[in-house]
Amino acid sequence: MGHLMILATCSLNQWALDFEGNLKRILESINIAKQKGATLRVGPELEITGYGCFDHFLEGDTYLHSWEVLGKILQSEETRGILLDIGMPIAHKNVKYNCRIIILDGKVLLIRPKMFLANDGNYRELRYFTPWSPSQHVEEYYLPRIIRDITGQTTVPIGDAVIATIDTCVGVELCEELFTPNSPHISMGLDGVEIFTNSSGSHHELRKLHRRIDLIKEATLKNGGIYLYSNQQGCDGDRLYYDGCALITVNGQIVAQGSQFSLKDVVMITATVDIEDVRSHRGQSSREMQAVNIRPYLRIEAQIALSSLEISMTPGFRPTKPIKEKYHTPEQEISLGPACWLWDYLRRSKTNGYFLPLSGGIDSCASAVIVYSMCRLVVQAATNNDVQVIEDSRRITGEGKDSDYIPNDPKEFANRIFHTCYMGTQNSSRETRERAKHLANSIGSYHIDFNMDNVVTSIHTLFNFVTNKTPRFRVNGGSDVENLALQNIQARLRMVLAYLFAQLLPWVRNKNGSLLVLGSSNVDECLRGYLTKYDCSSADINPIGAISKLDLRKFIAYTKNEFNISVLDEFLNATPTAELEPITNNYVQSDEVDMGMTYEELSIFGRLRKNERCGPFSMFSKLIHEWGAELRPTEIASKVKRFFFYYSVNRHKMTTLTPSYHAETYSPDDNRFDLRPFLYNTAWSWQFKKVDSLAKDFEKNKKINVQ
């Protein structure tokens, strides 16, 4: 006879330091798990505090309030009769750890600290926590008084141990530990652990989910076992969107998968599994040869059977069948991830909508379509009677919690909360103005349109009055310095006007509150520095700031059909232009001409610089093989040097970069992700000499095949 059990894992939309809200969502997830008959519930990493507390993890209050919340969980009748894996920070002997707390029936069974910390990219866990060491080391932890009074316990084990239930053995693996070469699940599995839990704070990046799912499947493919993966889902107060996708696998096969993007605060998945399937999978003799030599883990007893005699004796009650994993295309990821992030930011900031300068170009178009996607998701959730979404919608729109308003049309909802504006000058074209207007009509935004020439002229007049000089554009005979200054003043005035209208448009419409200003500079332009400091790239948040131009174009092509917005064709066919210089019969400003490189080249430079950790010399050394059939070595050298010059001379702009949704591995975000100096020796004299020398050697000593 089999040993059937129902196991549960979840994604929670926790918020940093929102102890009351986090507790509510934890208890709700436990209640749902019990309603589904589960005997084990796993939650996300640091779920009590929220993952993104940053330096608040250095404060004693954070640890005090975590224990207070855990006390509420221990006291709750809802938490009886189910084994719980809860995440919070712990200070042990004045050392801070990122921990899992295993509890059962109002008692703490084990504190399991994280052993391998995430400390690159967006993560700085070593700044706050210390990794537990060595493996399989266990000590006694003296519980704080508030917990002793609840549980009657004085000490509990802390360390790398496992839980022995009446019928199986459960081991904990924490987020980054899965990504290490010698993951704990390997030795735990060889020592007889049959169920692995993984609690994670893993953020969304385009095309990243495949790697995560492959690792989770591989964790039990060779060694057998049941793997329960839990992840945070949502924006918990920073640039990251944690993309959920809770998973349950059995012997390398997925049997349950949660949503990657959702407006729900609690997403729970369960699976019925047969523990005998794990034991059968582990029957090969070569595994047993390794298992007998493994160092045993300390087993902490838990007086609970995870399997159920009732369901095991019920005919027709069978294990959950394997399913095919679900992935979104990058275009779908862009339509969903930033949209969910914008919704969380809007509702948690207590503001009343968004304001976007809509230029008629593809970048601001993409930001607008993402907001429209957010409105579509809100309507979908409200239609499904998501109480939290309906409540938030009523507050944001000013209807009040006692209203019966329910969003049922994305365009109608967008008109209430989304404001767009075309700020034209004499350098603007009729085509961009019309594109902006048509897009606003298509998505329902409250749109305004004006010329700001008189504002620009007043600045020119002031400058002339003070200096008795009148700068001119290059096409009118001015110098490069004059030309750039005249472009920048237009761009910066748009930023000032954007904040003016964002503050006052609700008042104009007889509403309360204010609007968040959205930016729309993409990752490639940020990397190259092709933006004016304190122009419309300066905003409150930016949904596309870490998305490449190439991906944005694919996203717009996808949404044209998916959202039925025909005007998007016009954006796809338009030449990207800043429209800051006068248009003449033989000159129209072009972004790629201005930058001296294509967007495709920028993506390549960005990935080599960040992902492959290339300086000028190693970047040239790689590209000489990639591009050598089409370009001469000296031409490749020139492109590399041009990129590094403009990247470094403009790096200072990244210090004021608007907080952007993190989506791309080569984002130049200076505040969290890409830590570099912002005052460079832009000559790169030593490095460029090496590049030039190698390029000459290639041209002198090798036959060059130029197509």
TrEMBL record:
Record PANTHER family: GLUTAMINE-DEPENDENT NAD(+) SYNTHETASE, NH 3 /GLUTAMINE-DEPENDENT NAD + SYNTHETASE
GO CC term (a single one): cytoplasm
Reaction(s) catalysed by this chain's protein: deamido-NAD(+) + L-glutamine + ATP + H2O = L-glutamate + AMP + diphosphate + NAD(+) + H(+)
Assigned EC number: 6.3.5.1
Domain spans labelled CN hydrolase: 5-275
NCBIfam families: nadE
Keyword Transmembrane helix assigned: no
Keyword Ribosomal protein applies: no
Gene Ontology BP annotations: NAD+ biosynthetic process
InterPro entries according to UniProt: C-N_Hydrolase, C-N_Hydrolase_sf, Gln-dep_NAD_synthase, NAD/GMP_synthase, NAD_synthase, Rossmann-like_a/b/a_fold
Annotated metabolic or biological route of this protein: Cofactor biosynthesis; NAD(+) biosynthesis; NAD(+) from deamido-NAD(+) (L-Gln route): step 1/1
Keyword set, alphabetical order: ATP-binding, Ligase, NAD, Nucleotide-binding
Species of origin: Diversispora eburnea
Name of the protein: Glutamine-dependent NAD(+) synthetase
Similarity comment: family membership: In the C-terminal section; belongs to the NAD synthetase family.
GO MF entries: ATP binding; glutaminase activity; NAD+ synthase (glutamine-hydrolyzing) activity
CDD domains associated with the record: GAT_Gln-NAD-synth, NAD_synthase
